[in-house]
């Protein structure tokens, strides 16, 4: 049985849990107590020297990085529901959106979210938070025009890009951004998807 090193509040781990549920792949959770810095201790560092969850263990194969894990699941479990298109150009476009998800949304978004949730206001790096909010606003505008005539990012089906975004759009209320209309409609579709609700609804 697959083992997932996980923490209940970890957005990156949520991606993997959504994919596993979407694909109906059984797995067990190995809880890593990030709050007690268990991830910085030797036994976990032997599994991931970067001290981060998620980590997937499939037999003696160990893999970290949520997007790498999603791609592995797609290839290693080919008889499950697909998240990644077979067509070369569709897959290339998917990879473009997946990379932009990380650089234009998740990274700046996590900085603002983390500050607002866990750091006292007097210690906020306000200029940086403003710069990042502006960056996210620009991203949402570009993404919004792409979504104007689409229900989902690739092939009008829930897939890899939606899984990448889901845990992060769940927390979008923490960001100082206007949410454009097509993005909002897409976001609502993603958050009401059964596999997403099963993971994010339970936290
Ligand atoms: N790029 C990694 C990011 C993973 C990550 O940042 N995980 C956070 C939890 S959401 C973590 O383990 N943080 C613990 C730490 O940095 O000490 C991925 O996609 O899996």
Automatic annotation (TrEMBL):
GO MF term (any one): glutathione transferase activity
Record InterPro entries: Glutathione-S-Trfase_C-like, Glutathione-S-Trfase_C_sf, Glutathione_S-Trfase, Glutathione_S-Trfase_N, GST_C, Thioredoxin-like_sf
Native organism taxonomy: Bacteria, Pseudomonadati, Spirochaetota, Spirochaetia, Leptospirales
Protein name: Glutathione S-transferase family protein
GST C-terminal domain location: 87-203
SUPFAM superfamilies noted in UniProt: GST C-terminal domain-like, Thioredoxin-like
UniProt keyword annotations, A-Z: Transferase
PANTHER family in the cross-refs: MALEYLACETOACETATE ISOMERASE
GO process annotations (BP): glutathione metabolic process; L-phenylalanine catabolic process
Species whose genome carries this gene: Leptospira ognonensis
GST N-terminal domain mapped to chain residues: 1-81
PROSITE patterns with a match to the protein in the record: GST_CTER, GST_NTER
